[in-house]
Specification:
alpha/beta; 6-stranded mixed β-sheet; globular
Length: about 230
């Protein structure tokens, strides 16, 4: 269980997050929505430890991780698929996947079968360099690398951005499957409203660094979310 309690984040004098609170639980998808530049990526950076927060707390599995380094958060089971994918273009697909071994104990350093069952194209391209893959294939590789870490919390930053529709469907099916396992909490940052509404259990709309609107699936009104995103 992830609990974010009233966090602020600054880049120098500029404030990127304002009193943001959020939760994510295993077997659920928490969708964070909003226009460009409202603080969605800053929130994921804070959760992954890429940026220090200036106020508030972040707890995960009952432990305070507010000051932990990214590597320590990864060892606790937090995996981050950043915007832009950030795969290693000169490494092969297999080598890219194996970079997910870093936080694992030696006996756990294998590629889970789920990676190839969710994204079969990766199995057929193990020897190809990451930079030779299409954008959609690179996105699948980035998610696969995160799954190699056996995450308890999966952070996804706009996985549909610039991706062809067929692969968006593959990614949607993968997220649905991971949710169904019941042991992974997923935080999905997204601008594609239909994709988010199809997958989400909890919704938070951000504007100017703050959460302006929240709801659960039981009270989901896409038109209301759309209006909140247009603030």
């Amino acid at each position: 269980m992830l609990e974010v309690n009233a966090i602020d984040l600054h880049y120098g004098a500029a404030q990127a997050l304002r009193n943001v609170s959020l939760s994510a639980e295993p077997g659920k998808v928490t969708c964070v929505l909003g226009r460009n530049g409202v603080g969605k990526t800053s929130l994921l950076d804070a959760l992954a430890g890429q940026q220090p927060i200036s106020k508030g707390t972040i707890t995960f599995d009952g432990a305070d991780i507010t000051r932990l380094k990214p590597s320590d958060r990864a060892r606790r089971g937090i995996a981050y698929v950043p915007q832009g994918r950030e795969i290693f273009p000169l490494l092969t697909v297999e080598e890219n996947l194996k970079t997910g071994f870093a936080p694992l104990k030696r006996e756990d350093r294998s590629i889970p079968d789920d990676v190839f069952s969710l994204f079969p194209v990766l199995n057929s391209m193990l020897g190809r360099r990451g930079g030779d893959l299409s954008g959609g294939q690179q996105q699948q590789l980035a998610i696969g690398r995160a799954l190699v870490m056996r995450p308890k919390l999966l952070l996804l930053d706009e996985p549909t951005e610039g991706i062809q529709p067929s692969i968006i469907k593959d990614i949607g099916r993968a997220i649905s499957y991971l949710r169904s396992l019941g042991n992974i909490a997923i935080v999905l940052v997204e601008q594609y409203l239909d994709f988010a509404c199809e997958l989400g259990d909890h919704f938070a709309v951000m504007d100017r660094g703050a959460v302006k609107y929240t709801c659960d699936r039981s009270k989901l009104d896409p038109s209301e979310i759309s209006r909140a995103m247009a603030l």
